[in-house]
Amino acid sequence: MRFNLNLKKKFQRFCLLLICLVFLIFQSDIPNLKALTMDNYKDEMVIEELRLKVPADAKAAWLNAEKVIWEPWLSSQDGFLGRQLFWDKEKEEALILVNWKSKKLWKSIPMSEVNIVQQKFEENVKSSLNVDENPFELIYEGELNKQR
User: pTM (2 decimals)?
Assistant: First the structure.
């Protein structure tokens, strides 16, 4: 009986020690818990990231529509700082990086306005390629925030 009681106390001490050890190990991760949330970046530069499927035979039409439709419209937007276009030949994918002065300015643009420009872009592409549907599938959209 006394042996069981002694074993029980040792087990309890072991568990307490284990809990303390786990706490100390994860204590080193506390700075990450205090990191700024993405909402705190509303007044800092942000990069809009878009990835599209762009077949090789439609690359020229994509570049042209980007130049004549999106570029003038973006240039007229408050907070627009510039953009970069990339195309991966092997994957037949485009990467579009759009720099904005702040997330607040970027997100203040009404989606209805963006949709109108997107519709003009698609009509331009369909007309250029003589197709019925937009051949550029949106693969990914996200944002990149400058790290401190």
Answer: 0.70
